[in-house]
Amino acid sequence: MSVAPTPATAAADAVTDARALTQKLSRSLGIPTATALIDQARPRPVGSALAGLFARGGLPQGEVVSLSGRAVLSLALACCAETTRDGGWCAGIGLGAPAASAMRDLGIDLSRFVCLDTPAQDWMRVTSILLESFDVLVVDPGFSASAGDRARIAAKLRDSRATLILLNGPGAAKGGVKERGSSFPGSSERLTVLEESWEGTDRGTGRLRSRTLRLRSAHTGEHTLVLPDSHGATTAPRSRPSSSSAAPVASAAVSHSVPAGTLRLVSDSSTRSDGAP
User: Fold this and answer.
1) What would the pLDDT profile of 136-195 be if each residue is shown by its tens digit?
2) CB under 8 Å to 97, separation ≥6 — which residues?
3) Domain boundaries, the chain
4) What's the topology of domain 48-172+179-191?
5) Which residues contact 211 (CB under 8 A, 6 or more apart)?
């Protein structure tokens, strides 16, 4: 005499049958599972100095990349360079007016980067439209989106295979808004700039030449890179020269020949003996 299956047994059998059917379809029709589709999607390439920041060595397709801290705009633009050089299209929303010369130094093909002057209240609508046409979007959100809006953007990302880079700069916490991009569904890559330091102003005299960033990735740990370097590009950091081999600092006597844009620290020793400046 057969025994009627319990509800728990029937549910377990249904799950087993569904898994078996999925595997059979995958083998016979070449239909992979959703996880396999994500794993097999090749990331968008980035420069060699940036590849180590990402879990798959580049910008993930169909997902959100959240950048937090200072210098996030420069970091985001550097991540777009390889996409534009490979024939892809990138767009910026809410970025203001980035310097075209600096973007070119970072390796961006300016003919394939569109910067839109969008009102802050329209960033969600414009982003949703452009996801259908652009490969990478760099967005400085104008406000924190609702859960429903975030879910709709995430669904469009998956369908279009675009990459959405959301910026959470140091001013993101104003007005009670904090970490505006990190809560997006599908935000698989989260990078935070922990520290920045400029070089070129030794003892207060000189020109800003390069900036070193220390970053933390949610997946790959801490990293250090130079952005920009002395040529405006992105490179891996070099070891510092010893103090004995450092170039001497120019004296105040030749400060009149320093090019425009130079920063010079005026100390008490630079005042005249008669008290006049």
Assistant:
1) 999 999 888 888 888 899 899 989 999 999 998 765 434 333 444 445 665 679 999 999
2) 115, 117
3) 48-172+179-191
4) Rossmann fold (3.40.50)
5) 71, 196, 197, 198, 199, 226, 227, 228
